[in-house]
Amino acid sequence: MKIAIDNSALIKTFLRGEESLLANRELRVEKALDEIQLLTTQGLLLAKGRFTTKCPHIVIRLSSDYWALLHQFALEAGFIPLSLEQARSSKATFAQYDHHSVPAGYQIHCEAASVFWKTWWVNHRSMQLMDILLLCHKQWYPVKHMLCDTGTIYVKTWRGEQILSLADTVVWLDRNAQRQRLRVNVRKRHAKDTLVASKYPYHDELVANHSEPLQRPKVPANLQSVIKADATRLLVHTVLGPVVIEGQNLTCNLARKSVKVS
């Protein structure tokens, strides 16, 4: 009995560069000269690639019902778009993806720089040097430090400083994504005054084990939606992600400044 191949398996076959004539009701793979092509059964070219050259690469049609699936599987196979924004802004039909080796144990990401910044900021307290790698000039470099100021992100790597805007598309590797994220326990008001777990993607625990209970700072009612308090830390939700403030004898208040308008 012949088993039909689904779209995902067929796309992965194409991305491996296999010269096999596979097809289903929607897609087909075929060879044309030195290229492997992925087409619809109606003959629309969705992607093509050269896999036997020194620098393997593929091109993917940007406007099709299969782009999201092709993009996802291309990233997983190590094919990275280096000029996706330029291709879209110039209304190009195809975008090129070049092959880059991905070290074992890392997950690849291709998202806005704002997501990259938030991932680093939320997890940087427990990160080791090689946990996040940034693609710079076709090489992976460890991220040493990041700073965001007025919509501009400054990334320090072993190669030097990279300057990004929040909307830029960035390619990076995250080793921590393969681990189980620890959850932060934040003290909340509860009938029995017990701890209720809140799901924040931090590695370090928010609640430290103390032999003697410390007094929790009081959070004004109008700030409780954005600030969570524990005995030694405040968790403040900002537009770029959570911010942790550590210390003892913490206080929390909202400073107001009146301005006279003439």
Topology readout:
Elements: H1 7-15, E1 27-32, E2 35-40, E3 45-50, E4 57-61, H2 67-76, E5 79-81, H3 84-89, E6 94-99, E7 107-112, H4 113-123, E8 132-136, E9 139-149, E10 152-157, E11 160-165, E12 169-174, E13 185-186, E14 196-197, E15 227-229, E16 233-238, E17 241-246
Antiparallel strand pairs: 1-2, 2-3, 3-4, 4-6, 5-6, 7-12, 8-9, 8-12, 9-10, 10-11, 13-14, 15-16, 16-17
Helix pairs in contact: 1-2
Describe it.
This protein is mostly beta strands and 262 residues long. The protein folds into three domains: 7-99, no CATH class; 107-182, SH3 type barrels (Roll); 225-260, no CATH class. The protein contains four helices and 17 strands. Strands 1-2-3-4-6-5 form a six-stranded antiparallel sheet. Strands 7-12-8-9-10-11 form a six-stranded antiparallel sheet, with helices on one face. Strands 15-16-17 form a three-stranded antiparallel sheet. The longest helix is centred in the middle third of the chain and has 11 residues, at 113-123. Residues 177-212 have low confidence and may be disordered.
- Mean pLDDT across all amino acids: 77
Strand content: 25-35%
What is the spatial order of strands in the main beta sheet?
Answer: 1-2-3-4-6-5
The residue fraction in helices comes out at 10-25%
Order of helices and strands: HEEEEHEHEEHEEEEEEEEEE
**Number of DSSP helical runs:** 4
How does the overall form come out from the CA principal axes? elongated
Beginning-to-end CA distance, first to last residue = 86 Å
Uncertain residue ranges: 177-212
